[in-house]
Amino acid sequence: MSARRGLWQLAQRAFASHAGRPGEAVPAISNAHRLAPGSSVIQVPQRLLMGPGPANADPRILAAQSLPLLGHMHPPFLKIMDEISEGLRYTLQTDSKYTLMVSGTGHAGMEAAIANLLEPGEKIIGIWGTRVADLAARYGGDVIELKADAGRSFSLEELTTALETHKPALLFLCQGESSTGVHQSLAGLGDVCKRTGTLLLVDTVCSLGGVPFFFDKWGVDCMYSGSQKCLSAPPGGAPFALSERALEKLKGRKTKPATFNLDMNLIGDYWGWFNSRSYHHTGMVSMCYALREALSIVQEEGLDNMWSRHLEMHEMLWHGLKKLGLEPFVERDADRQDPTPARTPLTRAGAGVTFCSRAPGAGVDWAAVVKNAMDKYYLEIAGGLGPTAGKVWRIGLMGYNARPQNVELVIDAFRDGLQKQGKL
Ligand SMILES: *Cc1c(COP(=O)(O)O)cnc(C)c1O
């Protein structure tokens, strides 16, 4: 066969594969939605993310995420999954066997908690916004909402009364409320929940790693979190944990959880909770590398150091903002991170990781301050959300970002933004 004839045959084969199967007519390819020449490489500007999340990821975590892929059932990958479960035990301060990373953001953790721990018709007392109430109703829960004024947390007495009155299957609390900056204290609740036959479910999406949290000592039964706030990883993985009591509830269900994707019987089995490993879905390999690295950074720094660093940055921020005439949205010390120096970070009554600030006086254009921060400083701060829309700015001091130079920049951006409006 001549070389020319060989090439002709190759071309014919290539054409044949484009033309599809014999007898299958293939139309011409349209380029209407094809990348324009010159724009095929992704462009990402540098931003400092000091809003309620995501926060900037630690470069070491981003590097971990770019390591080669492994198969989701390969032994070296299973070892990384085990390291995540163990790293979570330290981070959550628990000996529970039942820790893992849910494939998805904080909301997936929220849905996993509700879908697995609540059976249709059971009561849930929920507090954080309307999301959980909506989710619980979708799974057939009987939702009892406790309402407080925005900017206030619930006292142990108020929660005890609600628990004793309703004896719900589940109590949902959010430790750090990112729409208002409220910190919900958890100490003492576990005992009351045990008395009323209630499982205690806690959202720590924006607080885990930033403020004290003790899964076992505080009697928490289920906790979910997020990777992109104080843990400094990209969004996409939700730390998740169940207590022995919560696992019994799951095992004793009369009905299967209505979700296959978030059925913790199946996902727990993939993560080795029941001493075997079976495939449920392809684990988020790169996201697991990221969380594995994020948790080892937490362990290297130590929880006590991490908590005091967040507290220090919080105090530094408030010191600077007060000089500009700004006030915290959350009025009572007990409802937010408490700067009282007499208390150690471990015993302070209130803490929060996302802080909100009231605008000084009337007539301040909050959106112009946000825009100026972005345009001039490449800095993200956020406006309010839900009950705080139009009333506050939200500033996050989370994880890798909770460092003095960033706090200084936030204060500078506020000073500049307010000066431009003649408010200083
Ligand atoms: C950010 C946040 C969430 C939502 O998490 P996603 O990762 O966006 O799904 C839930 N709860 C709190 C308290 C948060 O701050």
Automatic annotation (TrEMBL):
CC annotations in GO: peroxisome
Keyword Cell cycle: no
Modified residues (N6-(pyridoxal phosphate)lysine): K229
EC code: 2.6.1.44
The keyword Transferase is assigned to this record: yes
Protein name (Swiss-Prot/TrEMBL): alanine--glyoxylate transaminase
Family in the record: Belongs to the class-V pyridoxal-phosphate-dependent aminotransferase family.
Gene3D superfamilies in UniProt: Aspartate Aminotransferase, domain 1, Type I PLP-dependent aspartate aminotransferase-like (Major domain)
Keywords, in A-Z order: Aminotransferase, Pyridoxal phosphate, Pyruvate, Transferase
Coiled coil (residue ranges): none
Transmembrane segments: none
Gene Ontology terms: biological process: glycine biosynthetic process, by transamination of glyoxylate
Pfam families attached to this UniProt entry: Aminotran_5
Chain residues that bind substrate: R394
Domain Aminotransferase class V: 72-335
EC primary class: transferase
SUPFAM superfamilies: PLP-dependent transferases
Gene Ontology terms, MF aspect: alanine-glyoxylate transaminase activity; L-serine-pyruvate transaminase activity
Cofactor(s) it depends on: pyridoxal 5'-phosphate
Database matches in InterPro entries: Aminotrans_V_dom, Aminotrans_V_PyrdxlP_BS, PyrdxlP-dep_Trfase, PyrdxlP-dep_Trfase_major, PyrdxlP-dep_Trfase_small, SP_NH2Trfase/AEP_transaminase
